[in-house]
Automatic annotation (TrEMBL):
It comes from Pseudodesulfovibrio cashew. Residues 136-273 form the Gal80p-like C-terminal domain. Pfam families: Gal80p_C-like (PF22685), GFO_IDH_MocA (PF01408). GO terms for molecular function: nucleotide binding. The lineage of its organism: Bacteria, Pseudomonadati, Thermodesulfobacteriota, Desulfovibrionia, Desulfovibrionales. SUPFAM superfamilies: Glyceraldehyde-3-phosphate dehydrogenase-like, C-terminal domain, NAD(P)-binding Rossmann-fold domains. This is Gfo/Idh/MocA family oxidoreductase. Residues 4-127 form the Gfo/Idh/MocA-like oxidoreductase N-terminal domain.
Length: 362
């Protein structure tokens, strides 16, 4: 079986998400994938990356990459405002596409990309990698096997890390709501994808979004910027199972609870904790109690669930998505998180935002 040839749009060997998360994940799946090419903002940048990572091809621009017969799977890892143009080009070229979450800058772009992917009939996937975390798989199994009985409610509180009083120049764009890379879409959106995977779909959802810190200091330049992306998100809803849902995400980091997800049921309770609220890249710890038990006890996934996986949580979770992508491409299945899945997540986030605007009288 030939290896799936991967071309990256947006890959820098010295820093950034693609080199620290995607490349180690793909190396751990070397029987299935080979990274062969890259296109960056300039040909010179692509050449530097290709030389540093020993890639066969440095493309002059993304359109040259997506047109190449040497590429089977296009991976888009640039900032959100560029997703629509680049993913559209890859789909029009008939390539399989893996795009970082969020799929598009807003619901309209997500609708268009999902429709185009369906028309082209290629494998189309999105990087909501919390769904592939070993701990989330184990948690889903616990709930499905009746550890808590019937789920009555679930609650979340999370600190986003970013969207606090300070930032760095490379991440300052996160405070600009127009970029589509906000606290709602990134940490909350990723985590909501994991919640849905464990507890099922939402029947209803609404929320309030509040901007409390409108001035943010950029530590490496000393400048102060005006933030437009909300740093307080409060959400409530009802799952299709009838269980109640509530969440509060906060910008920055508190001195108390940084991530706590509780699932309360008729027979037991589960707590999931982590160091911060990005469920897609935080090491999750699970504990629980049921029946006559009065104190929480660790619920650790079986060791064999980690066999052959990277030790570090971020490439391990990203690897889980790529393993599903390989199956989908080779077997013409659709197990990996698809553009359709991403569209539903975009719809939920849009409902939260629309309800917040209605409450605020906008």
């Amino acid at each position: 079986m030939n290896k799936i040839r991967v071309g990256f749009i947006g890959l820098n060997p010295d820093s950034h998400w693609a080199s620290t998360a995607h490349i180690p994940a793909l190396k751990s799946l070397s029987d299935d994938f080979e990274v062969v090419g890259v296109a960056n903002s300039t040909l010179e940048s692509a050449k530097r990356t290709a030389e540093a990572l020993n890639l066969k091809h440095a493309f002059a621009n993304p359109r040259e990459l997506v047109a190449s017969e040497e590429i089977d799977l296009v991976v888009v890892t640039v900032k959100v405002p560029y997703h629509y143009e680049l993913v559209s080009a890859a789909l029009e070229a008939g390539k399989h596409v893996h795009c970082e979450w969020p799929l598009g800058n807003g619901l309209d772009e997500a609708h268009k990309l999902t429709a185009l992917a369906a028309e082209k009939g290629v494998v189309n996937t999105v990087g909501t990698q919390m769904r592939a975390a070993v701990e989330v798989k184990y948690l889903r199994q616990l709930v499905a096997d009746g550890y808590v009985g019937d789920v009555l409610s679930t609650t979340l509180v999370g600190d986003a890390g970013g969207w606090g009083p300070e930032t760095v120049a490379d991440l300052a764009y996160l405070n600009d709501k127009s970029t589509g890379a906000t606290m709602l879409t990134i940490p909350f959106g990723h985590t909501l994808a994991g919640v849905r995977d464990v507890l099922g779909e939402f029947a209803d959802i609404s929320g309030r979004m509040i901007l409390r810190r409108d001035q943010v200091r950029v530590t490496d330049t000393g400048e102060t910027l005006t933030a437009t992306s909300e740093d307080q998100i409060m959400v409530n809803g009802v799952l299709e199972s009838g269980a109640a849902f509530s969440a509060h995400y906060r910008g920055g980091m508190s001195r108390g609870t940084n991530f706590l997800w509780e699932i309360n049921g008729t027979e037991g309770d589960i707590q999931v904790t982590a160091g911060f609220g990005h469920g897609q890249m935080a090491q999750l710890s699970i504990s629980g109690a049921r029946g006559e038990e009065t104190g929480m006890q660790p619920l650790t996934p079986p060791a064999e669930m980690y066999d052959g996986l990277p030790d570090e949580v971020i490439p391990r979770n990203v690897r889980g998505i790529y393993a599903l992508i390989a199956k989908d491409i080779r077997n013409n299945t659709r197990e990996a998180p698809s553009f359709g899945d991403a569209l539903r997540l975009h719809e939920l986030l849009d409902a939260i935002e629309q309800s917040s605007q209605q409450c605020a009288g906008k």
